[in-house]
């Protein structure tokens, strides 16, 4: 896939990957063996008929290809861009055993972009409306998928979203250069064509409780509020000016449009020497945003080695190309400030890897006497997030695990029979497609639950 030149892209927020041309897509589709037992499908959490849509591309039937995908996945332009295909469908592709697997994600993206270019907005078929109301809490990928599937069954769906715009992490977390926001908006429009209503600026647990929603006539609920509460370090100096969570940094850059200053008057005062603590996608996104906002030097500080980094390989590669520096096997101990309370340095120590820990990765062990100071005037903490307790505090009868995530059975049903849940609020931080998979499973379970309920009184 053609990519924007690393030097040029550092001065803009335009997409890094430019996508396949029609010719490239057809050549790639022709490599597919159309396996009798396609392992790629087993690797996809929403089981897209991958050889089916690839065959259509091969035959230049792009409209048929995208229509087929949309029966399984309502957000193909998003998934084609941000899904970790290398550990899902592409990892299972038989061609990967001896060479390069089929670029399934790039092909999915190609047909989704073709649909947009041709302004087709293809919608999956829906059953006739049954006027039974279902509420979805949160408009991230789990909520959007559950909403779409239930709308296809004919339910009357309202999504309640805390923010003023929909998409969850797709909008406020993942930066523009990986996932343009117009794409998220367009995919949400498809949902609205299916009849799904979205009520923004509505925090469930504050504005409405489940009791209120039942009184409004809702017969079932899907909680998909994500896990957006940042985990912070306990280090001395965490309160200094210039130390912030990746959530805050990325939300200000993306949702508040700091990247588009001065068109939007909400800039970020970016540091000269930015340190990003963590090794996942969120850390990589923060580092690459910081560089684009004008930081002179951006360093990822990570306790383990590159091999253990949970970020996608593609993001690490792109980050390196753009000039992100890496301090591996390094643990931040203390943040030091100047007389104005602004961070100016960080005390760190070197680590070495020991035996495997409960996460299956080598455990970082401190090296005695290895402490030193690094110069930094902005520190972005990207060590993970956890469940936000607003909704669950307002619903004390809901069973949670010891980390505050909602407990469900394998079909997404909680201990309260009309309330289902899925996505990051059940699993902890995961992926877009796993959240979508949970949305789909719960939609089927909600449908069955409602079909078996004998007290459905439909309110006009
Ligand atoms: P979310 O996307 O978190 O959406 C939850 C929504 O619920 C939000 O819109 C929130 O405002 C709303 N909400 C919360 N509380 C309430 C309430 N009380 N009432 C109403 N609404 C509420 N995954 C990938 O597969 N590939 C990637 O490249 C990737 N990159 C990432 C980069 C970043 C910076 C981050 C943070 C995550 C990334 N992920 C990636 C992970 C992925 O985005 C998440 O796993 C996924 O978005 C989870 O979906 P969700 O629907 O469960 O929740
Ligand atoms: Fe094509 Fe690979 Fe799937 Fe086989 S496993 S059908 S080659 S994409």
Describe, in plain words, how this protein is organized in 3D.
It is a single chain. With 460 residues, this protein is α/β, with parallel strands linked by helices. The protein folds into 3 domains: 6-117, Alpha-helical ferredoxin (Fumarate Reductase Iron-sulfur Protein, Chain B, domain 2), CATH 1.10.1060; 133-228 and 387-451, FAD/NAD(P)-binding domain, CATH 3.50.50; 230-384, FAD/NAD(P)-binding domain, CATH 3.50.50. Helix content is 34%, strand content 17%. The chain contains 18 helices and 16 strands. The chain has a 5-stranded parallel beta sheet. A 5-stranded parallel beta sheet has the order 6-14-7-8-9. Strand 10 (330-337) and strand 11 form a beta hairpin. Helix 6 packs antiparallel against helix 8. The radius of gyration is 23 Å and the shape is globular. Bound molecules: flavin-adenine dinucleotide and iron/sulfur cluster. Iron/sulfur cluster binds at residues 32-35, 38-40, 50-51, 93-95, 102, 104. Flavin-adenine dinucleotide binds at residues 82-84, 137-143, 160-163, 168-169, 173-174, 203-205, 224-226, 228, 250, 281-282, 285, 388, 390-391, 423-424, 429-433, 435.
Features:
460 residues; FAD/NAD(P)-binding domain; binds iron/sulfur cluster; 34% helix; 5-stranded parallel beta sheet; Fumarate Reductase Iron-sulfur Protein, Chain B, domain 2; globular; alpha/beta; binds flavin-adenine dinucleotide
Name of the CATH homologous superfamily of the largest domain:
FAD/NAD(P)-binding domain
Shape: globular
Strand content bin = 15-25%
The number of distinct structural domains comes to: 3
CATH class of the largest domain: Alpha Beta
Average pLDDT rating: 94
- The residue fraction in helices comes out at 25-40%
Helical region count? 18
Uncertain residue segments: none
Listed once per kind, the bound small molecules are: flavin-adenine dinucleotide, iron/sulfur cluster
Quote the distance from N terminus to C terminus: 52 Å
